[in-house]
Design goal:
Blueprint lengths: L1 E4 L26 H10 L5 E4 L9 H10 L6 E4 L9 H12 L5 E5 L9 H4 L2 E3 L8 H11 L6
Parallel strand pairs: 1-2, 1-4, 2-3, 4-5
C-alpha cells in the first residue's frame, strides 16, 4: 500500500495562534493521536510517499530518522519528485500516478483542498483533515473503510 502523507495539518495541527513544539532534531513534534492512527494502518508492505512541502528539506535517510523519532516505523519511505514549477498538491500527486501507475492500494492523507478536484477514482482514497486539528482517531474508521473499496472500482 502507498500512503501519501502530508505533515502540516495532518501530523502537526496547523494552529495560527500557536507555534508547534520542536523536538531536538529541530523538526515539529507530531500529535500523539496522528501518530497512533498512522502507525495502526502501516504494514510491512506500506510505502510512505511524502507529499509535504517540507519533503525536499531533508534526505530520505533524515526523513526516516524524523519519522522514527516521532513513533512512525515504516520499511519504505519515498517522496514526490521535486518540481521547479509551483504545482498544486493535486497536480503533484497526479504526476506521480502518471509516472508510477496504480498498481497497489493507496490512501492520501492531506489537508489540501485542491485534492477535492482529483478524479473520482483518486478522490475516493483521500482523507481530508482539518488543518487546525490534524489526523485523529475518528479518521481511522474512514481510512479502513476506504481501503476496503477496490482501487479502480
Amino acid at each position: 500500500m502507498y500512503l501519501f502523507l502530508d505533515i502540516d495539518g495532518v501530523m502537526v495541527p496547523a494552529k495560527s495562534w500557536e507555534r508547534p513544539a520542536l523536538l531536538q532534531d529541530g523538526f515539529m513534534k507530531f500529535s500523539d493521536s496522528a501518530v497512533a492512527v498512522l502507525q495502526s494502518v502501516i504494514t510491512q508492505e506500506t510505502v510512505i510517499v511524502l507529499t509535504t512541502s517540507h519533503r525536499n528539506r531533508y534526505s530520505l535517510e533524515e526523513w526516516n530518522f524524523i519519522l522514527e523519532r516521532r513513533g512512525i516505523v515504516a520499511n519504505s519511505i519515498t517522496k514526490l519528485e521535486e518540481s521547479d514549477t509551483r504545482m498544486s498538491r493535486k497536480d503533484e500527486i497526479m504526476q506521480w500516478f502518471e509516472t508510477h501507475g496504480i498498481d497497489s492500494e493507496f490512501i492520501i492523507l492531506d489537508d489540501d483542498k485542491s485534492l477535492n478536484e482529483l478524479p473520482a477514482c483518486f478522490k475516493k482514497r483521500v482523507i481530508l483533515t482539518h488543518a487546525a486539528v490534524g489526523l485523529t482517531a475518528e479518521h481511522l474508521m474512514e481510512i479502513k473503510s476506504k481501503l476496503q473499496v477496490p482501487v479502480l472500482g
